[in-house]
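@channel anyone free to eyeball this complex?
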Amino acid sequence: MEALLSILNAEFLAASIRLATPLLFATLGGILCERSGVINIGLEGMMLVGALMGVFGSWYLNSPTLGFLVGVLSGALVALLHGFVCISLRSNQIVSGVAINLIAIGLTSFLIRIVFGLADQQRIVPHFNSYPFPVLGQIPFIGPAFFNQLTLVYIAFLMVPVSWFILFKSRWGLAITAAGEHPKSAASVGIDPQFVRHVCVVLSGAFAGAGGAFLSLGQLHFFQDEMVAGRGFIALAAVIFGRWNPVGGMIACLIFGAADALQFRGQAVGMGIPHQFMLMLPYALTLAILIIAGGKSKAPAAIGIPFRR
Amino acid sequence: MIEMEKITKVFPGGVVANREVDFKIASGQVHALLGENGSGKTTLMNILYGMHRATSGTISRSSQTLTIGSPSDAISHGIGMVHQHFMLVPTLTVAENVVLGTSAGPNRLCPFLNLREAEERIASLSREYRLDVDPRAEVWQLPVGAQQRVEIVKALYRDADVLILDEPTAVLTPQEANDLIDVLSNLASRGKSIVFISHKLNEVISLADEITVLRNGDMIGMVRKKDTDAKDLARMMVGRSIEPPELPNRSPGEPMLTVKSLCVEDDRKLEAVKDVSFTLRAGEILGVAGVDGNGQKELVEAIAGVRRAVSGSVETKHQGVSNREYARRIGHVTEDRLKTSVVLDFSLWENFGIKTCDTSPHASWLGMNIGSLKAATEAAISEFRIKSRGPDEKISSLSGGNQQKLVLARELGLKPDILLAAQPTRGLDVGAAEYVHQRLIEERQNGMAILLVSTELEEILAISDRVIVLYEGKIMGALAARKATREVLGLMMAGERLEEMERSPGERN
Amino acid sequence: MKETEGPGNLFATLLPQAGASLLAIFLAMTVGGVLIAIAGVNPYEAYSAMLQGAFGSQFAIANFLTRTTPLIFTGLAVAFAFRCNLLNIGAEGQLYMGGLAAVLVGVYVTGLSALFHIALAIAAASLAGAAWGGLAGLLKTTRGINEIISTIMLNFIAIFFVSFLIQGPIAEPPGFFHQTALIEETARLPKLMPRSDLSVAIFLAVFLAVALSFVLWRTPFGMKLRSVGLAPETARFSGISTNKYLFGAMAISGGAAGLAGGSEILGHQYRMLDFFSPGYGFDGIAVAFLGRSDPIGVVFAAMLFAALRVGANQMQRETGLPSSLVLVIQGLVVLFILAAELRRWLRERAVSKGKEA
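replying in thread with the prediction:
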């Protein structure tokens, strides 16, 4: 109990939020993509590409902000490929995602060695620093916990209401839902479901790229092979856990981020729970939710099914 | 007002769906597009609505040529369509479905919705045309009839003045169908043009002002209702006098299938078969007549053992065997051939052996005897005159008629004492249909007990010994086919009980 | 990925597909060559170093075959499930469970003769994999949970669970390293070549491929399983219990993946290290796809992937190119096969453009 209390403090909350952020970016992307009817197993690979290109961009343009944008764009570009294969060519979405993950792992590891050289592959690049809010950051407990983060953290959490609004309160959101639930009805009123899906997939790649670039430019400050370490898959779990809703996804990411933070700190404090169980938590919780709620519950009806007129 | 001229549609693969069809719609009129299944009605209307493109031909409105390349084009020309399978997103509300694809906001640029405004407009349209649609309801919760009215509102919301409905009554209960007919006449009286696609003579006659008849993709003619009658229309539609096959005399044998007080639910958990009892004897064909969707599907599936009965019993000689064995002992030509009878990606021999691959003589101690399966398939191909390149050909490359012959060959090859034949000639050409009838009669002569479910009265009357009529899951009466007439059966199909008709023949009007 | 080819005319149906696969391999190697050239290395030299690495000596070949073995198992796992229209993304987790069972039997069961010990360990590995795969099958048939989702979750649960055991309860005493104790001599598979890692596991893998091919194409069980995959309603109307087959397919698939883990432990690793699989389970998805979900095709696909991996190390030594390049080539092979649809797509576009004009 003492051990538990010693970790529940402002620092722990801040760490949870920081660790939730890359997940949140990727999760929002995953939600958008799946709601339009396309599964994106390749989130992991897109994050990885975003992380690497963020590092390159930041180094060569000497600005973490520009680097981040390069990361976002490169994630979107990879997603465009995924979209082409499984929307235009109507090939298998899962297999395409698997291929993209393979290529991403190989290509990033190849490029970092070629571009930065074997000896210097973990070169520290210009990176983001935390931005304490002027007044809010001064509040005891609340300040260090919530308002002493990287700017990108605030942006990520700002994207939650933005994407919620777009999904549920705009005609774009209606079109996305229609494309994912019943693409024929979208087509019958003049919406091109394939176009809608393409846009959503590209955006999901951009979000995943943002998550990856956040990892490299906000947390690690350099690139490391396979540094995304399964976060793309955790994001997939968060999409389901959050029932395809950005707010739910955010809650899932916060829980998973807290588990991750607990894992680091638990190890340090010597808490009884083996850290592997914390690492397992996102998957076990999501599976448990699925078992309780029963299968498809809220998944878009046409997910994984290519549309043909 | 809208004119389609010399429309021809050839699908990739060479199927001609429409051949130089002319079609005209005047405003304020109800126009029926009549024809058998597969005569090209839906294709023609899909062309008008921009879902398909015509191979050749022109569409014009008030002698101005229209280019309709997509549903958006059609909508912008004031054309709306209610598809047979509704184009609604079940998880969205009525209002959201209605505004889907429209700007529904302050302007084209702003992506945000003003649903309140849309809801008000939907409510007022609903009042004006007496559609009874709640804009805030979620679509998946609505009954089918209400969903259909949502589709109508959707078209009206887009200012459609031409409304196309594809087989609108096929999915409705008779009560809902009556309501729909009221709605449509109301719409027409307010200047909207209505086109409805149908293959049901009675509803065409009761509703339409003008009737265009299609047959095999050709336009047969356009007539005004007051200049025609059911007999004329039937002749135009069918174009052949049906040659009733000879049904030789045969006295039925012992009871093979006894259904007692059977109640069955459909996929929506609604009671579809209500307290049905009958007996089927050896050497007898029992026809089950009724409009589509009155419990026939559920009844057959319950007898076939693929749908659980809520209560009541099905008694055959085969109780207590495994599902697999039961499926081998009862022949079943299923209603939805592509979904439930064949595996499209399988070869002919694999389809032929799907029920028997694990029994002798096709199974050996280790595997299956592919040679004997192929030989049996080969024999069936020649006996049933199936046009194919042999047992290794994929069944998907066969025509519907030849696929059905293979299914029939497979099921009769089981040497069952009971055959369930659900819509066995649906979608078949005349030749194939005649062949199927002939075979059924032959098997009857050999003592098979056959349950023939069909929505085609002619088919029922021609080859059944006895007829029962299902209406809303209940049996309206049973009578010998020789004594049955179209009129009596028609009344029963519309929900009148035979005993009531017999009791008070005079009161009927 | 939906392909069917009966045994009827094997060559007529398989050859065009093999042709498409070969074309995809060629294209992927070409793109790989461009990357190599960009990195400033002669592609010809890089590829010949790769060939040398995979086939240049007896030891290279032994190494290559050792690497092929787990890929055949996981490829078979994914391919077999796919014949029942199930996408088993969980071969990796099933592999870990198989490896765990093998190491438990290998370390803690003692005093058996080699034959029995090996048989028991192999049976345990396949059963553990089958249980983990069957669990996903059960979740699908009883709770309607999509197997793609559940197997992804089960992967990570298995991997972290095994990692927990290795770092704690079953760590080799006194527990300094993240590894288990060595398995008994009696549980080790016979070597095919001294001083190499190559064991008889490769025969087991090829035998399983032949056996599964026989099951799929020449037994009623296989035909019913495929019918459930292609047309579940027709199968149900034919009296086939579809749930039984869905579960069975997942269990058999998991069993094959479990053997991948078991053969690694019993064949040459002899103990379990933390995170002992370099992603064989995920590679299995690509292998199955390249092999067109045909057990025999899987063997060839596994050989290609293994040759690339093994050759990559030699390439790295000789040319300084990062070996990770081959992952790109492997991914591209899959992507190019997916793009076989490209021709139809271009045709459709041409048709619709023609109409607008």
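from a first look: The interface with chain B takes residues 2, 4, 6-9, 214, 218-221, 223-224, 226-227, 230-231, 233-241, 351, 355-356 of chain C (CB under 8 Å).
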